Amino acid sequence: MKAINAIRMGGIEVLPLVEGGKGVAISNGASSGAWASAGGVGTFSSVNADNYDEQGRIIRQVYYGKTRRERHEELVAYGIAGGIAQAREAHERACGKGRIHANILWEMGGAERVIRGVLDGAPGLVHGITCGAGMPYRLADIAREYRVHYYPIVSSARAFSALWKRSYSKAREWLGGVVYEDPWLAGGHNGLSNSEDPEKPEDPFPRVLALRKQLRDFGLADTPIIMAGGVWWLEEWQDWIDNPDLGPIAFQFGTRPLLTKESPISDAWKRRLLTLKPGDVVLQRFSPTGFYSSAIRNEFLHELEERNEHQVAYTAEPVGDHVTEYAVGPRKRRVWVTAHDRARVHQFELEGFTEAMRTPDNTLVFVTPAKQREIVQDQIDCMGCLSTCRFSNWSQHDPDFSTGKKADPRSFCIQKTLQDVAHDGALERNLMFAGHNAFRFAQDPFYSNGFIPSAKELVERILTGR
Q1: What is the largest CA-CA distance in the chain?
Q2: What is the CATH number of domain 7-280+440-464?
């Protein structure tokens, strides 16, 4: 394996190894501080991060507001307090080594308010902000104001070009690097565009080469590109290291740091990672953000798949083939479906999926009475954790705090399930994000006999190779 040389990021020389930020409460001060202390770039998640009481116990995020707007304010306050707590712990554990970054999702509720609150409350402790899930035009302004470097997450040269021309060119001195996140292999939310086929992964090399060309056109030849998604062993990326065409390259590890001693995920989750097989991580589009995301296949995803399959189109009046009446809800309001779909509905009802719920797309999804109650309650309990949410129809932008569309029962409350799984919730009944290489835990002899390394041991292993 080629020697791995230090790279300049955030104003200092660091190992070109970056811990990927994973929220909610998965990349924290302990994991990121440990990664930084090994000489790399540690990243804690500022997405609804955990805070602690005086005894060091996690303060669970319970909401008391009677309205969504009131609960949204609670969520922002939780996020700021938690982000400050994680920044302080990361700083202490790093012992002055490496760099500490804070990761935010631009489409999370109150994103700008949260990151500003964290930077105000933990001055000098955060060296960089990584940000994706949307087009974060304001990221450069925040970085310039607080004098920290920023690292936008993109999946194409075109996306970066749009960000640069509209905003980033005005704060070029604070651009620390650009994260290229492979939209087919990375865990969590992915940046697949409408023109890209989720079933046809593309080779990342030409895509990153196009990004480098774009950077050079903008006078950013020495700005590092951080390759994220699908990185496991560095020797598999030999053609990338010290490649003059690609320029400075660092590598981001999102999935591998899940299985370290410092990782806050439960022991049951860690054991599950050691059993995964190829295909156990799937790319799906159930997220209330509207983005594709990669997660471990389990009962939670199976129920969402089944829910979406139990779906028929309807019209408000008889039109075309939609001439068969069906009565919806307790008031038995009439809609029209096709004769074929009426037969399907009859079968759904025989199987216990008796409750029809309307979607924004003029379809009905059929669920059990218990699932309907759960969906409705989750929609009522919405605390505005996203800037816009298709599941609950919340929006932080509009005057009436609504998307103006029907709430979509085909999705789910992402805040509820991520908080639950992060704090020892049932693994089968919650969303577990992971990269598509997660099956390699079971194949890699480094993890033989259930061995779980420290972050330092993992970094050393990555540097020395197999």
Answers
A1: 71
A2: 3.20.20.70
